[in-house]
Amino acid sequence: ALPLAQARQASLSAPVVIYCNADIVLDDDFFDQLHTLSATPAAVVAPAIISDLGKGFDQNPQRTHRVSTKKLRTLQLLYSVGITFFIHQFLGDLKVAARKYLHRHSRSITPRSPETIYAPHGALLIFTDADFFMHLPRYEPFLFGEELFIAEEARLSNKTIIYCPQLRV
């Protein structure tokens, strides 16, 4: 779908491109909040993506920092053997369950201010730099690993990605 979206953007020349999953529900003030970010120097803005129709935890930022070579090698080792892969996946599922539990039992959540991040969650990407969006190279499995693809393209282009929790979906 990326080439189709780029072709559509070429015909529209919109200043902002929102690329998202079809099942996203925007907060009532989403576009008002987005308008306040119109002068952002960031190429990509990541909103707060609240799971479970607003009852769950925020899935952004996907990654605050680039994964180190050491961690990638460790993951490669873990994923190369079936049992260690399943143990790693199980521990990841426990982490998600713990986040959900802690979210439900926390008294208040302090809103955070916008911050620079490495990779946004791919469920909704806001390209505030339409030129950056238009020059993304073809990436066939765009619905798998697009977060890291966007992060690396931004890094290589010396572009910034910010997480803005005021924007909620």
Please explain how this structure is put together:
It is a single chain. By secondary structure, the protein is α+β, with helices and mostly antiparallel strands. The chain contains six helices and five strands. Strands 1-4-2-5-3 form a five-stranded mixed β-sheet. The longest helix is centred in the middle third of the chain and has 24 residues. The mean pLDDT is 83.
Task: Spell the H/E element sequence.
Answer: HEHEHHEEHHE
Alpha carbon gap, first and last residue: 21 Å
Compute the number of helices.
6
Question: What would you report as the Rg, rounded to the nearest angstrom?
Answer: 17 Å
Task: Give unreliable regions as ranges.
Answer: none
Tell me about the largest β-sheet.
5 strands, mixed
Q: How much of the residues is beta strand, in percent?
A: 5-15%
Strand order of the largest sheet: 1-4-2-5-3
Broad structural category: alpha+beta
Global shape: globular
Q: Helical content, roughly? A: 40-55%
How many strand segments? 5
Mean pLDDT: 83
Brief synopsis:
The chain has 169 residues and is of the alpha+beta class.
Provide the descriptors you would attach to this structure in a database record:
169 residues, alpha+beta, five-stranded mixed β-sheet, globular
